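Page 42, continued from yesterday. The earlier attempt failed because a stray header line got pasted into the input along with the sequence. Redoing it now with the clean sequence only.
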Amino acid sequence: MPLPSNSASPEKRLNVLVTGGAGYIGSVLCPMLLERGHHVAVYDRLLYGRDGVEPLLGHGEFELVEGDIRQIQKRPDLFQQADVVVHLASLSNDPTCELRPSLTDEVNYRALVSTADMAKKHGVARFVFGSSCSVYGSVPGSESVDEDGPRRPVSLYAKTMVRSEDWLLAVGSEGFQPFILRQSTVFGYSPRMRFDLAINLMVKTAMEQKKIYVMGGGQQWRPFVHVRDTSRVLLAGVEGKLRSRILNVGFDDQNYRIEQLARMVAERMGNVSVEVVPDDADRRSYRVRFHRLSRELPEPGPTRGVEDGVDEIEEAIRTGVIKDPNAPKTVNLRVLKAKMALPAIAGGEPAFSRFFPFSLPKLGKAEEKAVLEVLRSGWLTTGPKVLQFEEKCRERLGCAEAVAVSSCTAALHLSLVALAIGPGNEVITSPITFPATANVILHVGATPIFCDVEPGTLNLDVEALESLITPKTRAILPVHMAGRPCDMARLWELAERRGIAVIEDAAHAFGSRYETTAGFRGSGGDAKKLGGPVGSGSPVSCFSFYPIKNFTTIEGGLMAVNRPELAQIARVAALHGLSRDAWNRYGAKGTHHWDVVLPGYKYNMSDVQAAIGLCQLQRLDGFLEKRRKTAAYYREALGGVEGIQLLDPPHEGDSHHLFIILVQPEILGVDRDRFTAALREENIGTGIHFRALHLMTAYRERFGFQRGMFPVAEAASDRLLSLPLYPAMEYEAVERVAEAVRKLADYLRRGA
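This time it went through. Structure tokens are written below.
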């Protein structure tokens, strides 16, 4: 349907950038700008198609740039020639905005900030923002409100408009002038037609059903404006014909109660009834005054009324100008829902607009303060904070001594050194672990012996382990995979019976507890108590405080030791084999005299790290509870998804360091790596914990390992991946990760 032209010539040809210009308003505004002789560049994702701009594509002064408004900072060229920016890009009705609140924030607020920042940076003097009268939210009774009245936003959409307005006003200057145009509810025909707007929907429903349904009570007030009239005001803003920085866009005589409006539409169309549907009262009710616009608009007054809008929509449907009024693209909510139901690899809306990391530490003001105190103290290396940290860890773990070191790798290495394990000895461990677990065995000259794992836990298979013990076996090094303790009762019993030591790789397990099925106490003074904290049982347990672990010291590790002579050796070996550490050499009561009693290493923890650890340790219980809740949600959300296998349910002592899923290629038709890549398209970071160590080049070539030797570990190695799980992760993010996994599995399972 052709739109009337405005024949008056502009004073100056302008280069106008219109974001969201292929939308309902933009596709009416852009032809008007071209008719006025301006050059128009439209930046639009085309989420609702290109119907709105298709007729303009051959125009010499029109340019269409397809792109997501959230990524507009990647297109500085769009701003370099622009004289004016008209920002219309947004998620623009309440149900659509509520679908994913974080997406609404990204599109409606953060993208506005990015767009305005780019405009200001490139010297664009005029920025016209299409806001909404919905910012008024709830106006008592029949009172009316003007631009100086209070804003009481009710909906998420309106709240993002308020934030955007406030930000623009704060950054406005002589060289960057934002104009905020609060639009009434728009109606009328547009090349990009919408039937989720009140009047438009009423006309369509009346034609199809001879009835109009009124929701929300019908007594709520709304201001209305024809799409051509609101575009006319935007045009005046572009051409600098408006003075006020904030203007309500509409006309005083076009405020209506919704039921009143429905009866007007029904009367105009004839033979149409109105039914008020029992429903919760709509909290949004605002009657608006437009006296300021009437003074500033070059041609005041509306050019189209409700009756005109009804007539043109009815005619457009009847004559086939609107080919399918029930097409999904005419309803924003339906389009976005469909987009969100598809995985990103199929053209769907990614779960996150920016990369969502696999893990992040949760650090705050307390950690900042603690680090500053250490820096200002002048003592940065191993000192009083490390001693304090060791004591707090000892109390928490219930071990005899705690030795803080530079990493869990250092702790594992020192454990082997303290136990005098070396050439000619064997240590049994898991092939599903980080390389450090086996590397340290090689570092002391011993031989790693791999044992297969349990399919439901990925922990050492104790049934298979005893047959691997030989006269050369000096220790078992179990890995508490993902924070779930191994079957320690059986491991301790086996180790004691065969006279070998147990060193626990508890990198994932600070805060875990042994299973409580029975009590066990070994001989020789080892306090092995089921139900107690991991670290309280074996001669040595080794923990990691790497940033993704249960709590962090940035880098760092700890030995929980239950044989004091091992702690004594470890302390000396951790610092070059010196008989005195720096605190005892250079402290107030120190002495410069020291000896080298063994050729040691540089494995000490610094006071800066320990200061962070002390703060983190105080928050550990909260961290563990958040991990537990996140893991429980994942289990509930993904438990019934075909093609995704979960590990066995956790027991009470699990610290939920990781949430591991196993991809089933035989059901999904893709392997783990392709599934991981598809999640990356959703902007979701994942982890692989772990690829089977015996298949790594260094171990395969040195020891002759081959595929088939440890079938359970190999099957898991090919299929496992870890989903994001950490205390700083918001609940909505957990939902979105789970939904992305679910929809991707569903899509792949259908063979799409």
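Notes: The chain has a mean pLDDT of 93.
Reminder to self: strip header lines before submitting.
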